Structures are given as C-alpha cells and as structure tokens.
Protein 1
Amino acid sequence: MSTRIAVFTAGGDAPGLNAVIRAVTRTAILKHGWEVYGIRDGLDGVLLDRPNGVEQLTLERVTDILPYGGTILGTVNKMDPRLYVREGGRVIVQEWAKKRLLEWVEQNSIRGIVAIGGDGTMNISYQLFEAGVPIVGVPKTIDNDLLGTDQTFGFDSAIDVATDALDRLRTTAKSLKRVMILEVMGRNAGWIALHAGIAGGAHVILIPEIPFRLEAVCQALHHRWKRGSQYALVVVAEAAHPVGGEPIYHEIGGTRRLGGVGEWLARRIHAECGYEARALVLGHLQRGGSPSAFDRILATQYGVAAVGCVAEGTFGVIVGLRGDRIQTVPMADVVGRQKLVAPDHPLVKTGRDLGISFGDEPV
Ligand code: F6P
C-alpha cells in the first residue's frame, strides 16, 4: 500500500489553513509513517506543471506554523480558464485537467489528497473524485456557509475580529453621538454579521436572509435616541439589501465583488433618519492574522480526521463538525448548496428578544 499523501489549499485564505496543513503532516508522518506532499497554489502546482509546484512537507517545515494566518502552500481563488470552464454558473474542471491529476496521483503513488477549501473547492474536488481521484475535503471559510458541518474553520476568528471592531466603534460612536456602521463579509450568508452583532452588542443587524426596510431601521434608531442613548452600532452583511432590492457590487480588475452597502446605508441614514453616520468596511482584516483558539482546535481536528479518512480509504467525503464530534459527509450531499441563516434561527430570535432590530419590523 502506498505511503504518500498530498494536501492543497484553495479559494480565499482563512485563519486556520496552516493549522490543518500541520495536523495533516504530523498525523501522516507520526501516526502512519507516510510521506506528505504539499501542492502549491491550489492544484496549479501539479496541473500547470510549475517548477517547485509540489514540495515535500516535513515535521520541520510545519513547525511553528500553527498560529500563523494565510497558507504556506499558497492558494488561488481565480479560475484559470486553462483548467476550468464556467457552465451556467457552475465551474467545470476540464477533462484534460482531471486526467492530468489522476496521472500524477498514479505516477507518484499518492494514496489520497486532502483538499482544504470552501464550496468552490468542494465542487471541484467532487468532480475529481468522480473522475477517480482519491480525495477528502476539509471545510474552510470565514463565511460559515458550507453544509455538512456545524462550523467551518476561519469563521470563529472572523467573528472575533468583527466583535473587536464593534467594541472600538462603540467608543467613537458614543463620543460623537453617531451611527457607526460596520460592513462585514460573508457573501450571501449573514453568519458573520449575526454572530458579531450579538457578541458586539449591535443595535441593528442587517443580513441578506432578512431584507430590510429603511423606515424600520430609522424607527429603531429613533427609538434608541428617545430612550436617551444617542449613538448606535449597525452591523451590515456585505450582501444585505432592502426589500425588493439587490445586493451592491463593485468591480475590481474585471471581477464583480460584493461591497458598498455600508456607505450606501450611511448616506441614507443621514438623509432619511437625520443622524450623522459613518461606515467602516472591515474587509480582509477578517481573513488575515492568527486563528482563534477555537479555530486552531477545529482545524487540527479536521486535519487529523482527514488523514483518518485517507488511512481507511474513505474518499469523496468532507469532514465536518456535528455537536462535539467530527463526522464525514458525502461531497455529493453538500456541493452546489449553501448554508444560509434561517430567518427564524435561534440566534435571530435571541437578538429580537434583546430588542435588536433586523430592519424588517418595528422594535
Ligand atoms: O468567501 C470569503 C470571502 O472573504 C467573502 O466573505 C467575500 O465576499 C469574498 O471572499 C472576497 O473575495 P476577494 O478576497 O476575492 O475579494
């Protein structure tokens, strides 16, 4: 039986990627006595035949990387047209690329590949699995929008950053009697806004799953001012939008990216509610830096579990958290679907009970 395993990171970075790489490497070497190979920049290192596109990962190479953000293997979140094509919104791996990876796996006697990434990576990994590549997925994203796990790693660290930002915005908001708006990431999901909003004591939380009405936001602010608290904290998810409206995008280098709703909201609150407002886009601060203790533990558990899957020959699955257990879920059950915040999610209810406005109904 082969004693070689490979690992790669793909998609946007998230705190904890290095913790998974370390856990995979240590478990493979120390528990099983295998060799570990890191593919650089997603699968580009192999598929584009890059010089030094694959490196052997040793215990020395992964020493000390646990607390560091980013990924020592590099990552890509732009689909290279040589490798992938878009068909009806879905990314399809080119046939030659599947064959090339399979050939590499066979030539190098790789017994399994650990793919660390978000929904895009899981979609690609599932296609590779169907083509015969022995692959196991590890769910990463600050957005927490992957099915098959209670939580993705990276999410907890992002909430910490957003909560800290709210704590800092509170003192400036209070001093100047302003509405401070924090725009957070999350793509089409409001998980970061919801959790950080509760943790940071926000007064208004706007998420894409609950379209808002400006009148309801103004009413919540008036209510607060009348009660004597003349400042407010608003957390808005980047894809949040008014009832009947659309999320706001901007274009960077030919690609459409979510962003701008915070600034839009600041202007509208100023014009229509009559309060001075300022917006802060938290942006990539949510993705950079050291993982939280929770994310380090989760990422480590995922890495160890993924190697366990390779050892027992379980492929085409992702490892995930269910309660306090790590379980596996078939990739087929999770790809192409997103985990969104249900409007009646218990944390939304908690927020409403606390008097937080979600911008949809009077508080
Ligand atoms: O999926 C992670 C994420 O940070 C989203 O929250 C955000 O919309 C997007 O990636 C930003 O992507 P980029 O780094 O390519 O601008």
Protein 2
Amino acid sequence: METPIKIALSKGRIFKEALPLLAHAGIEPLDDPETSRKLILDTNQDAIKLVVIRAADVPTYVRYGAADLGIAGKDVLMEHGGDDLYEPLDLKIACCRMMVAGPENYIYNNINNNDDNFAFAQTGKRLKIATKYIKSTQRYFAEKGIQVEIIKLYGSMELGPIVGLSDLIVDLVDTGNTLKANGLAPLEHITNISSRLIVNKASMKMKDKVVKHLINSMSDAVNKLTALTTK
Ligand code: PRT
Ligand code: MG
C-alpha cells in the first residue's frame, strides 16, 4: 500500500469546524480527538490519516513533510512566516479578528520628534504591548510608523493591562466576551483571521494527483457550505 496522506490539524474549534468540510470531501475520522488519546486518527479512507497536534505546530509539521497537508489559522501562519509551504485555500472556518485591545478609550501618544519614533503610553513610558503575535504586532505598528515594546506571552494576554505588565494587548477577538469580562475593549482592527489549507511543497509535486483532488473537493465544500450560511 502507498504511504497514506496525512492531514495535520488541531483539536478544538478548528477540528470541529473542519469536520463538515472534510465530510463533504468524503473524509470521516473514526475517532473523536476530544475523547481519544490517539495522535494519528484513522479515517473512513485507508489512505488518509489525521494528525492531531497543537495549532501553532501545524505549519512546522507541514513544512518538514511530517504531514502532507494541514489546517491552520492565518494568525499562526503569519507568525510562522516564510514561503516554505503552499496556502492554496481559505477554508473560511474558525473566523475571528486580530485586534489591539486595552482599557476602553485608551489613547497613546505617537511622538514623532525623536529618531526612534516610539509610541508613548499614558504613563509617559514607551508603549508596551503583550501578545503571542510578535511578527504581526511588529508589522502592524511599523506600518503606522511607530515602534512599540513587545512583550511575548503564550496565552491569557488579557491579564497584561490588568496587572500592569503591558499597556495594551494584541489578541484574537470573536464575540468580544473575553475582553469584556476582563474590563478591556477592542481598540484597533489589525486583520481578519480564518483557517487555511496548507500543503507541503514536495507533496504537492510528488503526490499531486491525490493532493490536487483533495484541494478541489475541499474548495467545493467551502463554496457549498458558505453558500448555505450566507443564504
Ligand atoms: O488553546 P491552545 O493553547 O490549545 O491553542 P490555540 O489557542 O493556538 O488553539 P485554539 O484551538 O484555541 O485556536 C485555534 C485557532 O482558532 C486560532 O489559531 C485562530 O485562528 C482560531 N480562532 C478563532 C480563535 C478564536 N476564534 C478565538 N476567539 N483562537 C482563539 N480565540 C480566543 C482568543 O485568543 C481569546 O482568548 O478566544 C478568546 C476570544 O474570544 P471571544 O469570543 O471571547 O472574543
Ligand atoms: Mg486557545
């Protein structure tokens, strides 16, 4: 038997929202990652396996060919950076917005009269931003022509301004409930986020028939399902 095609994805919202798309493409997992401890799930097709890993690890698995395809949030892909994998399809699932957030009506000073062009917080110090999205945050503020001090966190960014670790945060926002529950508000919209199908470059060449068939059927599924939800 040929080596099976592996699709890497994370459990939780991406897995849940990818299920209907995979089903449309004829792929049905035989295990539930929420209850199974297996990291490689069999599907109804012998030739297709699902590899269940942390969301931020998906581009790495695909980049190195440990998985042929993957499903990853645009937020994760922007941090991964580089052109070391293909991103042929917007799956339009797990949608949210990347935003600057902080205390309601927070205004910072963009002082232009020094060479560094740093933004200043209301404390008079350089503006500090806590986030796990270092590259996106850097790029966003660089495009505004200001430098900020970025503090790398791995989660619970909302805590930053509350405990005085940072003035603002950059995080993903869906309903806005998490921000609100922590006394914060969305301030600036950076970009819209959705999950993308990504493909290993060698797999695209070597397994082109199977991979292209999968891309096409997933694309069909996206069109059908978005047509249903926008009706
Ligand atoms: O949670 P874990 O540490 O295991 O990993 P992860 O956070 O990387 O994975 P997961 O499954 O939480 O998120 C996977 C992907 O889902 C992300 O990479 C995004 O592309 C996408 N996504 C869509 C989101 C959200 N919506 C989202 N709302 N990821 C995270 N959130 C979080 C956000 O960070 C904040 O804490 O939900 C909170 C805000 O939600 P609201 O509804 O309160 O605004
Ligand atoms: Mg999470």
